[in-house]
Amino acid sequence: MNTGLIVLHTTKFGENSLVVHTLSREYGRRSFLVRGVGKKASMSLFLPLNILEADIQESNKADLFTARNIVSRHSLLGIRNNIFKNSMTMFLSEVLYRVVKDGAAEQGLFEWCEKNILLLDSIQTDFSNFHIRFLLELTVALGFSPEAKDLAPFVGEHYPVTERFMTLSFAESMLIPLNGTVRNEIAEEILRYIEFHSESAVNVNSLKVLRELFA
Fold first, then answer.
1. pLDDT band (50, 70, 90) for residue 214
2. In this structure, are residues 111 and 197 in contact, taking their beta carbons and an 8 Å threshold?
3. 146 by DSSP, 3-state: which?
4. What is the C-alpha radius of gyration for the chain, rounded to an integer number of angstroms?
5. Which domains does the chain carry?
6. Phi and psi dihedrals of 57, rounded to 5?
7. Is the pLDDT assigned to residue 122 strictly greater than 90?
């Protein structure tokens, strides 16, 4: 069956194979085996948050299905040619990889992710706040649907600006003036909220990359 896949993470498997951890409409959060990977051109298909199309070969004898005939659904040149956007996709893919449980199938999550990836790809300027807005909308996509007051115990002194993010339009929220330190603190605080409600540790290693780039 041909299906769309969003790449969250990859794990090397043998000499020239990968286990690709993905999000899809049909399978939810699921990992697939991809054989014959090794060349740089092939590996570029599996960058964080790439949106792919693949034929899935299911098996009654194995839990790990195989993905074949993989092609890119969108080029995402607006992301791949920008070091800041690339770093954001590293961070956001790791959040999704750690928060969305293997086997989970949140209705509408794939469509929401695809829409936001294409939005990040298309934005020309004023995207430094994108990951904060993404994290706040992710809480809704996961079914937590907080009001601003629900985040108050986690965001502390950043409550007023967090409330603005939740009430302004997307375009307006991208223009909220923040320095890198405050932006990073808010991202960490929202992650703590997600940790609390998902009842799992979200140790996002790539957040330190954003700290350096958006300091």
1. low
2. no
3. coil
4. 18
5. 2-72 (2.40.50.140), 77-213 (no CATH)
6. -100, 110
7. yes
